[in-house]
Each structure stands twice: as structure tokens, then as C-alpha cells.
Design brief:
The protein has about 150 residues and is an alpha/beta fold. It has a single domain, classed as 5'-nuclease (Rossmann fold, 3-Layer(aba) Sandwich), CATH 3.40.50.1010. The chain has seven helices and six strands; from the N terminus they run βααβααβααβαββ. Strands 3-2-1-4-5-6 form a six-stranded mixed beta sheet, sandwiched between helices. It is globular, with a radius of gyration of 14 Å. The N terminus is likely disordered.
Length: about 150
């Protein structure tokens, strides 16, 4: 059995979505539907980075509380907010030096996923590629599942 098999042992899978993943969920019914189907029947916990919430506010104007409220409503679960620590920033810097496509805030997502054993939800091929190279479990609703 894959180390990343979805919830076969009734374990909770913690997922950290990137900015575009969250925007897609909030603004595109198809993305929302595919994401819900992807995790249906599994115990999934969603974690949002504060820097991702700030980026969403910058590019779309949604407040952090508005995003959290909407995600909690859509997925019927409480969302955790994670502030990036110095250790996470250090790991992110190391990733940025190893991967050309690694950049802020994606490198922070991968660093958090590595440090905390989170899975990543994203459409970003570059992010998904180097996250996978680092052994991080990835999901993309675009393809309806694992990447």
C-alpha cells in the first residue's frame, strides 16, 4: 500500500492548498465540485498559510476571514491557519536554491508540507513537480486526483 494512500487506515489527511487552488475553489464551481469529489468519504483537514491568505487578499480582494468562512462552509470542516516560522523559511530558502521553479509563496507551501507531513492541493505544474520530487503527496482537482 502506498504511504500516501488516502485514508485507508482512518487517518486524517492534512491538505495545504496554494493560492490558485483556493481561488479556483471559491470562484469556479467545477473546481469546487472536483475537489469535493476528490476527498469525499475521507477525513481531510485543511490548513491555510497566512501568506497565501494575504496573497489572495492582494490579487482578489477577499479578506482572510471571508476566505476561511467560505472554505469552512463549502467543506463542512474547520480550517486551520498556519503562520510560517523561521524554520519553515529556512527550508523554503533551501528549496529555492535547489529548484529553479521554486519561489515565494510556493516554496513555503512545500517547506510546510515537508516539515508537517501535509499534502499539497494545486494546479501549478512547477510546484507539483518539485513537491513530488521532495516526496510530498500532491493533489490536483484539474486531473481529478493524485499527481
Amino acid at each position: 500500500m502506498s504511504k500516501y494512500a488516502l485514508n485507508h487506515n482512518n487517518e486524517c489527511l492534512t491538505v495545504i492548498p496554494d493560492t490558485n487552488g483556493i481561488i479556483g475553489i471559491l470562484e469556479n464551481h467545477g473546481v469546487l465540485k472536483r475537489t469535493i469529489q476528490l476527498f469525499q468519504g475521507h477525513h481531510v483537514k485543511l490548513v491555510l498559510l497566512t501568506c497565501v491568505l494575504k496573497e489572495i487578499q492582494h490579487v482578489r480582494g477577499y479578506s482572510s476571514s471571508e476566505v476561511v468562512s467560505q472554505i469552512e462552509h463549502l467543506f463542512h470542516t474547520k480550517v486551520s491557519i498556519l503562520k510560517v516560522t523561521h524554520d519553515i523559511k529556512t527550508i523554503a530558502s533551501e528549496l529555492e536554491s535547489r529548484y529553479v521553479q521554486a519561489h515565494f509563496p510556493d516554496s513555503l507551501l512545500v517547506a510546510c508540507a515537508l516539515a508537517c507531513s501535509f499534502a499539497i492541493l494545486s494546479y501549478d505544474h512547477g510546484l507539483l513537480s518539485y513537491a513530488k520530487n521532495e516526496g510530498v503527496h500532491t493533489f490536483t482537482p484539474k486531473y481529478g486526483g493524485h499527481r
